[in-house]
Amino acid sequence: MSLKNLVAKTGQLSRFILRLDRIRIPLWLVGISFFTLIVPPAFKELYASQQERDVMAETMQNPAMIAMVGPGDLANYTVGAMTAHQMLLMTAVVAGLMSILLVTRHTRADEEDGRIEMIRSLPAGRLSYLNATLIVSLITCIVLALINGVGLYGLGIESMDLEGSMLYGTALGATALFFAGVTAIFAQLTESSRGTIGYSLAVLLGAYLFRGITDVSNESLSWISPLGWVTKAEVYSANNWWPIVLMVGASFVLFVVANYLNAIRDLERGFMPSKPGRKYASRFLQSPMGLALRLQKTGLIAWAVGMYILGASYGSVFGDMEGFFQSNEMMAQLLQEAEGASLTEQFLPMLMVVITLLATVPPIMAINKLRGEEKKGRLDHLLGRAVSRVELMGGYLIISILNGFVMVSLAAIGLWSAAAAVMDDPLSFSTVYGAAMGYYPAILVMIGVASFIIGFVPKWTNFIWMYVLFSFFVLYLGGLFDFPEWVGKLTPYGFVPQAPIEEVTFMPLFLLSVLGVALIFAGLAGFRRRDLE
Amino acid sequence: MSVLTVKNLTKKFGKFTALDGVNLEVNSGEIFGFIGPNGAGKSTTIRVLLGILKATEGDIKVFGKDAWADAVEIHKRVAYVPGDVNLWPNLTGGEVIDLFVKLRGSNNQSRREELIKKFDLDPTKKCRTYSKGNRQKVALIAAFSSDADLYILDEPTSGLDPLMENVFQECVMDVKKQGKSVLLSSHILSEVEKLCDKVGIIRQGKIIETGSLSELRHLTRTQILVDTKQPITGLSELKGIHEVIESEQGLSFQVDTEEMDEVMKYISQFSIIKIESAPPTLEDLFMRHYEGTETASDTGVGGGK
């Protein structure tokens, strides 16, 4: 078969994929660009003088921060250098994630569902769909690079010149392109879209962690990680283009390998055969709750690990914060010590809001899984047998309630253990754990709202995410935008006393718990009475 | 003794009436065939029977208990196979079978192994890799390896090959021998004809015909092919004659069952050389119910939810 035949109709298919993703791709692009572009003006506002930026640079000068955001030009910490240091790597990881999801969607996922079979039965080439996907990825990456490059330059901040800005954008685009290549290869190797996403994510996270470890221990070794190349571009200081050129070159090599692998394999087969599973169900699986737990097992473990790491990474900066306050008298005067709480302890409530809001996500996913199963028509199998609706939903609720508890606990333990390791005068465990657990009743209310929606207006199940997002904006940005107090009270988190600064009173927590439990039971009652889809 | 009785079942989804006064009865040891075109209300009826949907009106009893309120008690004695089997992609077939059997409350390990062999299923494969037919096998094995008293099967064979269809029919006959009841919704009419004692036809949410096959056949026509020495004349003037076609083999036509005697007497005057008659098939019966009331393209049968 000639090359022309192998890729026949690629152009048409590219336009088709662009049409399919005409909302998805712009959303990703807008989301990533938005977070890139709001940060430099905020930095300029918050750290107006070089002196303030140098103070910031000082707090960045520790292994924990280097592991998290990479090395930066701390000696010359302009707004540009600060943005590149604190934002570029994280944004590049998100851009990589975008590519993984978009490419999987049109490679292995389409193949698994038999859609590629349909395409192949048409007069399109064997490699056309893969290359159409890669072309769409390439276009997406170029647009991403241009929006961010031009956008950053357009902010008109002194330290952000055209070259640096274009390099910033290109670094994002190149990372996205590289992971498009990685995903395209795993789409050939594995036999399922879950496998493709899983392995590609593992490479992304592995690259991030490896870079973190080597950036701290031996910086030349972090050349092995493609994400290391992003920080080595030294955007807005040295402006090295060639690590990014290397990245683009490597991406095209990955594309060629993916094409080769695709050409030599059979449709719907992979090179990593899926291993056979169990022949019999374990005792653990054989109940509605066991099944619900089993279905969420992987996600649950991933979230648990993630929450611990999140807590630990917050905790790891406490040591530097302590030193920072001790050495900075002005700051100490500014932040007057609240009664009974040290300066570092005053940072706890703000961290706790972020941590507990994130810890709300997995329990809500756990209860919403019930609705997901209903929509896929798999609840019929259970309800067609000797399983009552209360037992079924009850199982999901118990998992969700325990899940929230475990997530908050793990984050708190992570924060406490990391803080204890780096502080001279460590926080007590009960202070940290207590501050976190104060938010648990608010999480119960969120689970209650989700369960109520599932019980009465199941079509609106995803509305709960809007509420979570709303809570996040109100609480996280509330202080910044100076919202009136009643806005904060529109979310259950607004009622939680901010331990250890505020006194913890029993009443609000008790009332939140009662409300949460009442909503949960109402949801159960609604689920018992309504038609299933 | 009746295992399942449905009286005046009405189900509305908003303003749309999906089921309009449905009546059904299945007795113990009976196989009841439930047929009707796409969207007629077969699956909706079954989902009401299983307590997954709540009836707007009507009295639905399974084993004498209320299908909605006593769903769990009832389901301990019911095995259900849906038409569109969706399974959890990351569990193996073996795990799903065990889970289903366990959730029904009974366990028959040897029967499980026997059925896995009979249906030729690899239980170690993840459900995501199964074809439609294989997913259906999982549901069928789970159903038949549990000791239920009523089997509710919603188009259970739509993805099976003829060999597996035979295995399925054996399984159904087996449970019938044990005195159990089956409600079989199907669009494979030959299968219904072979297995069912009684048939109910549903259309636009109403049961339009119900009874044993022989009762229903009375309502239909017999296909006759006859060759005579003298050409038959004036046949089409007789009552109950339809679709007369002349061919090389002779004259073929359909006769209403109640007019059979008159017609036979009439054509015997023309000295019969050869006569062939075919009993009315369920398909003829089915088609006849829709003739004139719907366009030809709408007379398909079966379908999903």
From TrEMBL, chain A:
Residues annotated as coiled-coil are none
User: What domain of life?
Assistant: Bacteria
Could you list the residue ranges that cross the membrane? 25-43, 87-106, 127-147, 167-189, 196-213, 241-261, 300-319, 347-368, 395-419, 439-457, 464-484, 504-527
Kindly indicate whether the keyword Transmembrane helix belongs to this entry.
yes
User: What protein is this chain from?
Assistant: ABC transporter permease
**One Pfam family it belongs to:** ABC2_membrane_5
Q: Which organism is it from?
A: Evansella alkalicola
Keyword list, A-Z: Membrane, Transmembrane, Transmembrane helix
Q: Reply yes or no: does the keyword Thylakoid apply.
A: no
Automatic annotation (TrEMBL), chain B:
**What Pfam families does the record tag this protein with?**
ABC_tran, DrrA1-3_C
Keyword annotations: ATP-binding, Nucleotide-binding, Transport
SMART domains linked: AAA (SM00382)
Q: Where is the ABC transporter domain?
A: 4-229
Q: Does the keyword Cell membrane apply?
A: no
Q: Its family?
A: Belongs to the ABC transporter superfamily.
Q: What is this protein called?
A: ABC transporter ATP-binding protein
What is the species of this protein? Evansella alkalicola
